[in-house]
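Run: sequence + fe (ii) ion -> complex structure.
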Amino acid sequence: MSEMGPSGLTTGVREIDADTEGLCFLMSRLFDPLVECRRRYGECDHRQCTRIGAIAKYLDRSFRRQDDLMMSAGYPMADEHQAEHEALVEQLAAMQQACVCADRDRAVVDNAVTLWLLRHHRGFDRLLANWAVTRRVLSPAAE
Ligand SMILES: [Fe+2]
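>> structure
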């Protein structure tokens, strides 16, 4: 994702796009070749990778915001959308349990999040944004 950036992943709704932009920024920082894993020279046992943990922590906040919005607005596809959020959370947790290291196995982690984001944007966030604007739950971003 470090090369991908958020361009092309907009829905036209700031509340949704801001979270995507934040995730892309976080990923680019975490996987910048000049940013070293802070556990690289320590006693890293490749358990509970801090980079994966940082992604999961960010997603927890942004997913919670979207999940709350869907529930409070009565979004008809809320269950399916939330399940997609949960699928990525579970995938990241499984990686940590399997001792995947985002430093050593950076392509694995980067690809998993990037592929999920591309699918999720197209199949879920854009639908939510369109629905929310149509129902006047959220406003489109100013031009
Ligand atoms: Fe979403």
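>> summary
The chain has one domain: 14-134. The CA atoms of residues 132 and 138 lie 5 Å apart.
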